[in-house]
Amino acid sequence: MDIKTFIVELTKALAWPLTVLGAVFAFRKPLLRLLPQLTNLKYDKFEFQFAKEVAAVEKQAQASLPPIPDKSSLDAVREKLIKLAMTSPEAAIIEAWRYLETELLELIVRQKIDFAPTVRTMPRVIGALLYKEGVLTEAQHDLVVRLRDLRNEVTHGRTQEVDIERAISYIESILRLVASMHDV
User: What is the reported pTM?
Assistant: First the structure.
């Protein structure tokens, strides 16, 4: 292969990658402004679709759990969490999860289920114990797992910014789950 053929082949091989790189560089500011509006995040083999997952969890909660009564003891919690969601959706998700953790712990204590003291800090294990003892249904246990995974996506920064609508949907799913646990 002579030098001219080598240059032609190298140019052909690098044309598209360099064009894409040039376009990304040229439009970097508008692209950065669009990042917070993403509902999907994909990197290599990792793909997480926060908005779709929250919608799926909410749909599952509505289908498998009874609605929250109109005048509920959860109204004050809802009001507090939604107010927080208006200023910081991520903080509201973390706080809603913390509320669910507390409720799971109280439920396992109320049911007088034996557990190791270290389990107090493991809500997923508490959920599994409650499910194993027949206190939580399979649907309730599945929601605990899915809600925890969503909370982890937010707290560990593996998803883009969460909007208010998604945070409220998450809060409503948590409250519906808690209300169904109060019926136990």
Answer: 0.69
